[in-house]
Queue: 2 jobs
Job 1
Amino acid sequence: MFTTWSESGQNGSGDLGQSGGDDNTQTGSIGPQDTFKNPERLPALDLFSDEISHAGISFTTTVGSTAQHVNTSGFPGYWQALSNFGAGVSIAKEGPNYGLVMTYDGGLSLTSGGSNYSYSQLNQTATGHLTWNFAKHWQFRLRDTYLYSDDPFQPFFTFLGTTTPNNPNPVTYFPNTVLEQNQGHADLTYQLSPHDIINFTGDEAFTRYLRQQVTSFYNSVEYAGGVFYQHSFSARLASGGGYQFAGLDFGHGQSRAGTQTFEGFIQYVFSSKLTASLWIGPEVTNTKDIVPVFCYQFGCFVQVFHQTSLSVAEGGQLSWRPTRKDGLNVQVSRGVSNAGGFLGAAHIYQILGTYGRPINRVWSLGIGASYNDSTSVSDFRASQYLRSVNGTVGVSRKLFNDAWTMNAYYAFIDQKQNYFGAPITIATSGFGFTVRYTWDHGLGR
């Protein structure tokens, strides 16, 4: 049986459990990371047999609290208390040659800084995932995730100015920004022979900052596509290559970037417990930036910058699973991708590592850490960067039965950034816990 590539890692920088921090953490994957990550884990084309046809539903509720300390260079540190409440529902359906999973999660977070301030945030996420074997040698997969984040109780910042005879009530309202994101991935796989496959991929993503008073964040749209070929020389060794293109647009044409990457990869299964994969290839990046030179009441004079650069994109992954319940996973990648609302297209270097293992029958340990270094690809913004180190150490325990789980953790973020010529450092660390209840029920055959 052949292996295929894993599903898209569009959200490349995973949440390590720490609340707070900058909203512009990288939302895109690096180069071909979503193609060559965990290539042994994607189900084969004959995953769904004729005997399987059932559905199930799952409900989850989560309650948690975090106490964290925030330090920003040039300002005194302060403590924050975060409370989180969430609930979700998931429905799964499998047939003879298809599988469908739909989920919805909603959560409310309350942040308080003592008597100084407090605000709330409502987050809603909907996800759909379809796998369909529509012919003997064909498999189609589709996944889409939508996020909407808003403060429904305090939609405005209120600023009170100085009272004057002509303005006895100097109150100014600044609307809070609403975040809206969508990420979609589709791929079509064809089995050429027992040892050869060809894979076509397509991606779509957008980020919108609604109700924004000052346009400091760029709305962005991203489209990507690629074609890859893989040959399995044996049960242990597979290799191949392909082509990938990504188009990025920030601020409706204010900044645009296109990247083309030709990639070669190799994967080797040392044993049932240890797998390693590597990929590398040349990457061509073209950018166009519209920069205001002088603005007045009737408009702005602008200058258009065009730039072409050649670089090398590469990455790798090591996965070690000594038992079914524990394992170590390390990923390294470098390339040009979407770096969020401030940086736009950027050279991104990422390292991500996770480790988990059971301590005993009811306790388990989880450790995660990541490093991110992002620098703008544009020459006129070459000094703009974002560098961050995140980490988490946590333990989980089953409470009354398998449905109840408690998690306690320590997490930290150390972030250095320079967006507007004034470098700053933000450091956040804290302790937190969550309690989660899950109810599962099969709906029958």
Job 2
Amino acid sequence: MTTIINDSATANDLISLGSIADIGSFLVPCLGFATADQLMAEQANNQADEDTSRGLAIGGRACFQPLFSGRCSYLPYNRGDGLEVQSLLEGDPRLQLGKPSWARLWDKDATKPEGAYNVGLMVEGRRQFSTWARRTTKRPAWWYRLNDGSHDCATAWSRHDGAEQGGNITIDSQTRLYAARSGRGAIYTMRTTFDNEGRPDGFKTGLVLVEFSILDRDPTKDDMLKVQLVASRSAISYRTDRAAEVHLEDLDPVWQGLAQKARNTFERFCKPVSDEVEQWRVNFLDQRKNYLDQKRFSRGAATFFDGIKSLSWQEALQVVQEPWQLKVVIDHHCDSRFDTSVHRSDTNGSRVGLMLSRFDCHQERRAELQRMVSDFVAPTDPLWSYSGD
């Protein structure tokens, strides 16, 4: 498969820089070709890798599928240099503050393909990374649904003197590529933080600054990529109306301007919490309130629990309309009769799974109940996967 980049490309066409729909690339070392014909000729001269997702193997080096933009073409190296937003935001040990990191692009004794040169593709715009918090009893199990998973970040690039990189390639309204041999880059993040009741209680912001250059002028030495981590900073705000400001006063004006550019990109294209997570949070808290009201019997009227006590478990499942109601039915009806273990009780999750599998209903109804389990029942059960010490 070949990726053609032009002004009408969509987000799903973005670079096979590592996957069909890349969301995390930041800096991608490539072989550049002045014309598409040169790269196509090199493709014809090299046997395709058996794993088609990895593309060609040139000079003993695996590469991803090529990209074409106008006359120029690029062949991204399949490397593991930690130059994705995920690795940089996690603090890749290969990149230490003030200490350059070196990666060999091309062996001095190997012959480059005709017309090929070293270049870096810099990805600017909306990117994504993931976080996973360490599990602890200080947090309810469902809280991790708010914290863990994918988050937006924004990247920005400039030349070393602060000027805009030239020759940008528009991917979509949120993403551009630049091809250059050196540059300065910034990654800006801002995430909403939540308390143990699921309420927003502030923001966590972060900033990573990186510069790179390609050194390949000396034919007696290997072609090298030099990358240096200039700054990696974070700040926390305990206000819900204002993000924390990352300290920048000690940086030169070019870095300050680039950091502001990344922040502006974030504010334009990114969100501190995704729509999906926010929708789940609001629905979950609403369901939890209904469930807790049911347990307290605070309304003085006949409750849903009163109505299902006299029903069989099959009949009770049939009347469930909302996730909190399914939780009530499970609390009352999902007991040891759904254990399959000979020596001890099954986990709560195993019991519920067996109960739903035995429920006499259409597949659509079973899928609906399973979604309720995933969205509400399982996250509220601290013993969901617990089967004893």
